[in-house]
Amino acid sequence: xxxxxxxxxxxxxxxxxxxxxxxxxxxxxxxxxxxxxxxxxxxxxxxxxxxxxxxxxxxxxxxxxxxxxxxxxxxxxxxxxxxxxxxxxxxxxxxxxxxxxxxxxxxxxxxxxxxxxxxxxxxxxxxxxxxxxxxxxxxxxxxxxxxxxxxxxxxxxxxxxxxxxxxxxxxxxxxxxxxxxxxxxxxxxxxxxxxxxxxxxxxxxxxxxxxxxxxxxx
Length: 218
Known about the structure:
Layout: H1 4-22, E1 32-40, H2 50-69, E2 71-80, H3 90-100, E3 104-105, E4 108-109, E5 112-117, E6 130-131, E7 144-148, H4 164-176, H5 201-210
């Protein structure tokens, strides 16, 4: 027996379905492609699989940024640099990187140059990972970065737990897009980010605001 209540429910369901069909899906996020040149220092290159480590670290960070911000990092070139060992100061490495490695290469212009060091840097002296500037739309996003690699890395895929070296890379890439250090102890942008894997809301908004800003000119 079809009751008035059942008829009303059927009509309501049809109206709801029709209304949902009229609601347009949100437009897809425009994917930002960042062209990267990745470099490995002499200490890192002692491992014959160092290029695999570099590729894996960038891929892992890229998967995170693509999922959270619609930004993909593509490694166009991996090369050795520098030719000397024993440089444990990331400040010095960054200065030399900007002086010796141009953004323009044979394959075209790079957006970002990342120097990976395998040296046992002292983060409390002059060994913290660093970028050339905190990015913004006025001056452009950052172009150069130095970060350390503590051990060989093989990326197991996007569902894996984020390892320390990947977190450090994500933290610095946050700076490239304008994120700054925060006192929020739960944020990956805290100075001592340890194994935090999420951005605080303020820095998340900054990155989303800057994600399509032009890169600087070095």
